[in-house]
Amino acid sequence: MKMSASKAMVECLKAEGINTVYGYPGAAICPFFDALLDEEKTIRNILVRHEVNGGHAASGFARMSGKPQVCIATSGPGAVNLITAIATAHADSIPIIAITGQVATEQIGSDAFQEADITGAAEPFVKHSYLVKDASEIPHIFKEAFYIAGSGRPGPVLIDVPVDVQRAVIDFEYPKSINIRSYKPTIKGNAMQVKRVAKALKEAKRPLICIGGGVFASNAVEEIRKLSEVTDIPVITTMMGISCFNDDDRRFFGMIGTHGVKSANNAANDCDTLLLVGARVGDRAVNNPLKLEETTTIIHIDIDPAEIGKNIGTDIPLVGNAKDVLGQLLKVVEPMEHKEWIEHLNAYKSKRKYSKAKKGTVDPRQFIEKLSEAMPANTTVVADVGQNQIWAATSYKLKEGGRFLTSGGMGTMGYSLPCAMGAKMACPDRTSLQICGDGSFQMQFMEMATCVQYGINVKIVVMTNQRLGMVRELQDKGFDGRKVSVFLDGSPDFVKLAAAYGIPAMRVHDTKSMNKAIEALAGEDKLMLVEVCVDEDAPTL
Question: Is-contact 69 95, C-beta < 8 A?
């Protein structure tokens, strides 16, 4: 069937089941946006207020749907603005398809208006990129891009399309399947290695499972829970693995790492066998891997062989998709009991005590803990980066069905509101709760307009202390308290700012207002903002 290449691009998205895209138009991508208008009943086009937020919104949608999602930008500055979102998705293995407009083919390399070498600039952060010079290749390229983004270790793929290519006419036929000779991810685990893992777990006296984001990427939550149940092995998570287990599970001991909890870090120190699943062992997760290597048998399951042994020595490597490998493992492990080991770890658990907050403020951790008790069980919590991220990760008590999202690898400030938008659109029946600080909120608050325009009901919590709190803590501890460039004087009144967008808002500054705000947040599913005043010196842990 003959059609314009821009129309063919839309047909490719329809064939991949895309019903929402996030973008910001410009001259070099206008033919594609024009073609989208003809399919507005099939594909909803969300006009974000900044290109980077389109990428983060696609990320949130992809994380909740488990499928690659799409963001769009024009050439030059629009495309370059997407790079932070692409890098963020790359660090956390999130499958997004970034479609960018490019100047006309004959102008490439001439420093034309709004020209940027986006495929070159984004190269370190993508699984693959395409500069489309032949319009007839579009169906094959799109089929290949979605396959690469969503298979193996998920990640971002970039498709850069010159404006004249979008206007060309082609014969359209979408491929039913794709075969890339040089790209064959290892899905199944080696059978002998699977048996070695089962034997090591059987012989261990103090085994421990550490879960990373790869468990969500491979949809292996059910398998990892079953493995822990059958073997009675306790579990900890990295920040990206939070919400695999409920906080009230008897085998769950929290988040490991620099900002993790005592029970998880002590469990890692005391175990004799550590099973890492879909975790890349980042520097904030394990800050002394050499010591752990000396005392512990380390088993590492990951679909990306480059991650195994990269940050920590591994005794038993096992390459494969976590869901498939855990399924194989469940067929050979024997039922076990580790009652004494779990009782040993329970001694590390302690109930947090909150000190009295200064007048006009509340304890941020107490607020988040109380909020988690009131919110619906299947709430999607999206934390930003900074102190708010750590408070949310360690104090929000997730219930069955809850989900925790954040930018764990890149640590991208300004991620939470657009990500929460995407998460809400992927799962309209879930409450989408965003938690950020006053620094990160000022990198993204323009997206409140997007929420209003499209009726996206995100519940926004802004923890304000007029500081870049995490950096302030670093300067207090590492630079003799010499504080520089952390003061946020001049910030707007966030309650009035929300009102300017027509969004209901309230401020928390004492126990009474805290209880009222929590009741509102846990109530009707509607767009709203709560500002929480916290002590400028409040610690992270």
Answer: yes
The predicted-structure confidence for 460-486, as pLDDT tens digits, reads as follows 999 999 999 999 999 999 999 999 999
Distance (Å, whole) CA 436 – CA 406? 10
Q: With DSSP H G I counted as helix, E B as strand and the rest as coil, what are the percentages for the chain, rounded to 5?
A: 40, 20, 40
DSSP 3-state of 65: helix
Backbone angles phi, psi at 328, to 5 degrees: -65, -40
The backbone region for 230, taken as left when phi is positive above 0, alpha when psi lies in -120 to 50, beta otherwise, is alpha
Measuring CA to CA, how many Å separate 103 from each of 29, 51, 79, 414? 9, 18, 12, 29
Q: Residue type for 116, please?
A: A
User: What confidence tens digit (pLDDT) does each residue in 224-246 have?
Assistant: 999 999 999 999 999 999 999 99
Which tens digits make up the pLDDT trace of 79-109? 999 999 999 999 999 999 999 999 999 999 9
Instruction: Give the residues across from 100 on adjacent strands.
Output: 73, 160
CA–CA dist 377, 392 (Å, integer): 16
pTM (two decimals): 0.96
Task: Dihedral sign for Cα 345, 346, 349, 350, please.
Answer: negative
